[in-house]
Amino acid sequence: MRSLVYPLLAVIAAFVAGGLLIWLIGDDPIATYALLISSALSWPDGIGYTLFYATPLIFTGLAVALALRAGLLNIGAEGQLYVAAFATAWAGITFANLSPWLLIPLASLAAIASGAVWGGIPGVLKAKFGAHEVITTIMLNFIGIALVSYFTQYHYKAAGDPIQQTISIGEAAHIARAGKIVPGFPERIPLNVSFLLALVACLLVWIFLWKTRWGYELRATGTNPSAAEYGGISIRKQIVVAMAISGGLAGMVAINEVLGYRYRFYDGFSVGYGFTGIAVALLGRNHPLGVLLAAILFGALLRGGLFVDIFTDNVSKDLVLVLQALVIFFVACEQAFRGPFSKLGLLRRSKV
Amino acid sequence: MEEIFTLSLIFSTIRLTTPLLLAALGGLYSERSGIINIALEGIMLAGAFTAATITHFSGNPWIGLAAAVLAGALVAGMHAVATIRFHADQVVSGMAINILFLGVPALLSGALFESTGSTPQIPKDQLLPNVPIIIAFALVPITAYVLYRTPWGLRLRAVGENPEAADTAGVRVQAIRYGALLVCGALAAIGGAYLSTGQSSLFTRNMTAGRGFIALAALIFGKWRPVPTMLACLLFGFAEAVSIQMQGVAPIPVQFIQMVPYVLTVVVLVGFIGTSRAPRALGVPYQKES
Amino acid sequence: MLELRNITRRFGHVVANDEVSLSVSTGTIHAIVGENGAGKSTAMRIAYGFYTADSGEILVDGEVRRIETPHDAIALGIGMVHQHFMLVDTMTVAENIVLGEEPGSRASLDLKAANDSIRRLSRELNLSVDPEALIEQLSVGQQQRVELLKALYRKARILILDEPTAVLTPQETEELFTILRTMKGEGKTIVIITHKLAEVLAISDDVTVMRDGKVVGRLRTAETDAPELARLMVGREVLLRVAKGPATPGEVVLRVAGLSLEGRGGRRRLSDISLELRRGEIVGVAGVEGNGQTELIEALAGLVPRSTLSGSIEIDGRDVIGMPARERRRLGIAHVPEDRQKRGLLLEFDLIENSVLGDQSRVPAVRRDGGIFLDSDGMRRRAEMLVEQFDVRPANPDLPARALSGGNQQKLVIGRELMLPPRVLLVAQPTRGVDIGAIEFIHRKLIELRDAGCAILLVSAELDEVTALSDRLLVIHDGRLAAEVDPASTSAEEIGLLMTGQKLEMSAGTKDSGAPT
Q1: What percent of chain C is predicted at pLDDT more than 70?
Q2: Which member of B26, C130, C470, C499 has the greatest number of CB atoms within 10 A?
Q3: What is the pLDDT of residue C244?
Q4: Across the interface, do B151 and C69 touch by the CB < 8 Å criterion?
């Protein structure tokens, strides 16, 4: 129960603070929130888009959560998913003539592997040189995004296309949209099979972290590196492995984006999925189930944010960014909610 | 290539170093007191947006600058309350502030100017003169003096190294940390204000483009000392100046030129971090009862 | 005069001080004795304003005073030397001493005035401390003097010392006592917290005995003796000696030859260490903390980078110097680290997960050795067995290790290491911060293990402990083995001299100790 109370309080606090901001810029907070929520929960569009936006957030949320379990803050999911999306499109373009049975796994593999490489680099830099992952991952975001922008512009763009995007991937690489599976669900909604993949990823991450020796070693490193080393665990290896897995998970965003939605790499596609992943992971207490719930919440916000942008006088979709930041902030300030009973709080923790 | 290395390159280097240096010196006060300040980026953004907005409305860049300082101190104060009072994870709190000030200026500018994140152009005669440059470089010896030759500086260093020792010696650890963070907020915000109302004439979305993080890298590279930190900032400023001058001149895709400061940051972190020792209590909340 | 009246202080559910009252007269040396966790330090930290009391009052010179911060205490003339020195290593002696009470103006720190007044103070007490030296360059004894100067610089009339002798050699202790007597002669009031009875009898005028957060005795030192104090401290008659039979050493299991360790900045932490460890014996390593004991144990356990080591470490004749910790463990090398919380336990993890740390790739953590999937039933059975055999309380394997007391955490670590079962046990500070009941239990387990044929290398800062448990005793100083002595026939003074690096004529074969015979 307790693991639900504080995240809930943090979300409420964030909405209150955000509401204050809405009121400040001259809109009605209650009406804005009502619009936000109702547009996210309508059937089929609201729910469909909410889950569609939740899909990348599950992947980035898992990515950040897994790294945090190893004691690492991966702020580089954004760069990792960009690099992965380009690599996926590249695979889909280059091997366009393969059969779907080969091309889809191959392109997905490209997504995971390229994300893992881009995430693994800061891991190696930390393990070998002690460079703090927070700064290196941020820098690698800039570098990665610039790099794929270069490749897109100079090598993979259709001639004369004014939009910064690659040519289309082969049709064999397209994965099924929900409309093909759920009867009566419109196929224009881009929710696709990768949502199921995200659910599987949650399960696998849970098994990995709590049911395998590798997960044990990773968590031990995160909670007490000195004791982990004492237990014969190589800290450096754990850092690299955790960052690579984290990058691979972030890279899976590309499966949803490239194989399930746009069928090409579009420069600027991410609305900050990597950064939102931090909020998702923290709100979800670095647990796959929590990540799933938090990702759906933020997916709803992203969906609702678009409507708020259009149908309110002053509030823009940046409200979502603000709410997200406030959630992270209030989750970090958990102690504030314990108030004068902090001693009792500690007491409860030691007994549970 | 020769014509690139001219007097204008030197001036450009100094101008581009200024916001970095202000942020890095701000970070120095914060981190020397034991508080990791990843929030530099967000503080700069808050400062840049506030300065541009207030200058736009008041027509006076000095009022804009003063407002930016206030905003910076306020944002840093948020970080301070979270990390000092509530023992929030310093990196996480800093990251939240960074994302918050990616969003808040965009939200406010939408309401104030009906734009998606930028402020209106400020007329040329209402821009800040080069005063922030002088402030930034004058602050290097001043910071060194404060740090090593004043009681407050002694306490600041002690609190960052061993807060418990400082506490038992009668130093009010939390007060020193709050003070350090307020100074940090003010300085980083001046850096931001200079970006929006000195170097350019408006605020644009995410205009700091990672400068807060680069300043942090410079601080690490400079071993948390004022003069070496300034030299590190000059190096980054120079890299940026070169990359700007090369754009359109050298036959290299713009993306690669833009990458230079970021690649340099990684190289510097990787190459020199081993020789750099952080304040010992950096990142550790100070709690007596545990 | 300093007086505490009915002081109560809780930490979470633990009552650290329960209605504590004590009174210290001006110009005397007052000892506060008690077991670990008896609440001595808490009481004195309250008097110094480092903690605040939940209830009760503090009187200074007969007046009730509010002491809520160290600042208040300092203003009232109270100074404190903490067990862990409160010094900033990277700053100079003078900077440390004046911190918080800086001479000069707000805008300018007058370091020259600071240096002068420190030199003057230092001369008055014969302390010979250089105000411009960096703390990290000073020995532990010198650092303690800096702490004394810090209090005196603040014009302390009442000086509290928390376990001041824990890190000192017997000789340094004697020097400290001389200083304290001088200070008493000058009219200062001194409170000394300790758990060493000999010291109480040697230096104090009055004694207050604490147990379980309560005061259980107020005595004049002249009118009491060690057995009475011990009985009060523990609440029952205690065995001051460890019961053990003679050792029957078997073949050599661990042989170390010419082991050296180059630390950071080229500093030698271990120099040319050679020793042998046989089955069925306990070899103790005595020394002042920080002389290489930790490094020696960690090097043998495989926790020191290979590149910093030279020499050889052989297990059963096989060189393992380049072998990682995990594989050494497979050869039967178990390790009880000196800092169980930082090194030996995952405090946030439950006892089940802690019970397999180090053995996570072997049965019962996994179904078969080298397996990937954890065997939760096997792990739980292991934890239950461990909790039962080693009397870990509360006996609930689902608790996080953080929820256990220090003594129970230590029993958990020792139990886990003994489960291996080990052929060689490397054990550091086995009873640090552990209550008396657990100390007896741990000592008994170590001796049982020895008698079962395990080779044990024991490091302890408690000279009494190493001499009582060891069959052979090595003395380490400055990373070198200074001597091997017979613990039964060598006096504490002699060992103390060796610990300071002075050679004794009577200690035979300092260099060849442990060499192949």
Answers
A1: 96
A2: B26
A3: 84
A4: no
CB C250 within 8 A of CB C278: yes
- Cross-chain residue pair C342–A226, CB shorter than 8 Å: yes
**What are the structure tokens assigned to A159, written together?**
């001639």
Check residue A351 and give its pLDDT.
Answer: 26
C134 — contact with chain A (CB < 8 Å)? Answer: no
Q: What is the predicted ipTM?
A: 0.90
pLDDT digits (tens, 9 = 90+) for B214-263: 999 899 888 899 999 999 999 999 988 988 888 777 788 888 988 888 99
Q: Which residue has the higher pLDDT, C282 or C504?
A: C282
Q: Quote the minimal CA–CA distance from A5 to chain B in Å.
A: 17
Q: Residue C48's closest CA among C27, C19, C69, C22?
A: C69
Q: Around Cβ C13, how many Cβ atoms within 10 Å?
A: 11
> What span, in angstroms and rounded, lies between the C-alpha atoms of A211 and C178?
61
For residue range A172-211, list pLDDT tens digits in order.
999 999 999 988 899 999 999 999 999 999 999 999 999 9
In the predicted model, residues of chain B with pLDDT beneath 70 are: 1-5, 273-276, 288-290
Helices (H), C336-420: 351-354, 376-389, 406-418
Rounded distance between C-alpha atoms, residue A251 and residue A270, angstroms = 12
Token readout for C181 is 């007597």
Distance between A290 CA and the closest CA of chain C, angstroms: 19
Q: Which whole number is the average pLDDT over A307-329? A: 89
What angle separates helix A2-24 from helix A273-283, to the nearest 10 degrees? 130
CB contact under 8 A, C99 and B169: yes
In terms of Cβ atoms closer than 10 Å to its own Cβ (0-12, 13-18, 19+), residue C331 is middle
Q: Residue type at B248?
A: G
Put simply, the chain B residues between 210 and 269 with a CB less than 8 A from any chain A CB are 210, 213, 216-217, 220, 253, 255-256, 258-259, 262-263, 265-266, 269
Please list every residue in chain C whose beta carbon sits closer than 8 Å to the beta carbon of residue A227.
342-346, 357
* Strand partners of residue C334: C425
